[in-house]
Amino acid sequence: MSTRKLTLDLHPIYNKGSAIDAALADAMDEAKARKAKELEIIHGKGSGALKKKVLRYLDRKDVRARYHRVDKDKDNHGRVFVYFRWKRGQ
Q1: Which of 13, 50, 66, 82 could cross-link to 39 by cystine, CB 3.0-4.6 Å?
Q2: Domains, the chain, with CATH or none
Q3: In degrees, to the nearest 5, what angle opens at C-alpha 20 toward C-alphas 82 and 49?
Q4: Is the Cα dihedral 33, 56, 40, 38 positive or negative?
């Protein structure tokens, strides 16, 4: 795995609300530490509840300030991509 692309698979903790938030926060911290260009979050297809939870988390004002943009995969509805843009010294 490249240090420029990270992957977070939420399947093992899909029904643990606080663990999901912690995993998302950890992934965002790791992305910053590694200066990753992209974070792939795999939430699965299911009922869509986990995807909504992930998107709500990413839409929080404090989290939104940490990334450049979010794309939903048009070919696979079970994942979301978060893209980062890092400035020198950041």
Answers
A1: 82
A2: 5-83 (3.30.1370.110)
A3: 80
A4: negative
Cα 37 from chain centroid (whole Å): 12
Measured in degrees and rounded to the nearest 5, phi and psi for residue 10 equal -95, 0
The Cβ of residue 67 has, within 10 Å, a number of other Cβ atoms equal to 17
Q: Is the pTM of this model over 0.85?
A: yes
Residue 6: count of CB within 10 angstroms of its CB: 20
Q: Which residue has the tokens 């979050």?
A: 41
- Reported as a single tens digit per residue, the pLDDT across 15-53 is 888 899 999 999 999 999 999 999 999 999 888 899 999
**Residue 6 backbone phi and psi in degrees, to 5:** -115, 155
Quick: pLDDT tens for 50-86: 999 999 999 999 999 999 999 988 888 899 999 998 8
Cβ(56)–Cβ(21) below 8 Å:
no
